[in-house]
Known about the structure:
Helix content is 31%, strand content 24%. The chain has 7 helices and 8 strands, in the order E-E-E-H-E-H-H-H-E-H-E-E-H-E-H.
Amino acid sequence: MCFDLDSAPPIPVVAGAAISHDDEVLQATDGNEFAAFVAMPDEAVRTGVVIYPDVRGLYRFYEELALRFAERDIAAVAFDYFGRTAGTEKRDDEFEYMPHVGQTTDNGVQADARACVAHLRSRGVEKIFSVGFCFGGRASWIAAASGHGLAGSIGFYGSPTRRRGGPSAVERAYEIAAPILALQAGDDANITAENNAAFEQALERHGVEHEVVTYDGAPHSFFDRKQAEFADVSDDAWRRTLAFVEAHA
């Protein structure tokens, strides 16, 4: 798991923001039903994000993150990866997620994400971005190569070279059809500077607009209110996320 059970997004709440939120069950075109959390500003908006969680799937960290986006007039859907193997019910903190992670495929994850994109479009959202963390960081970049019609894809400490249920993001760089923002941890034991350089080189080779940012000394999963010593890094990453969305919306 990337975050502790009591972790929270390091983003201030916008006091007085008018938003609505719901637990939903969405359906992919292959018939799979999966849990999602939808947060919408009360006023109509044209920009939205699909949130790809870490390996644990949908839980409260990402529900709170969806709320923080919606407070800033960005519609948000955070979705779960395990509808095919674990159903759609809420899960407690003892959920054993890793056996389900091993059964995911890029095709399944992106089929569910496509349903999230369709849900946002049905509610009037025109420009849609993916944003993901760890497992979801990689999956967010794969989303840009999966025909969703995204305006951009953001990944926090995702592995660009790992194959998990499909080819790596580096291997699929030739298919990427949206600008990429990568927010990487410099002190990440499993994602090296060489991995990040390979991603940047692949994106350059295939003419993909991109920015790869590495925060020196920051650990994997730095984007966490509990990681107080990396608050400045989290602030910068959030600022870059919002600026990227604004620039490409």
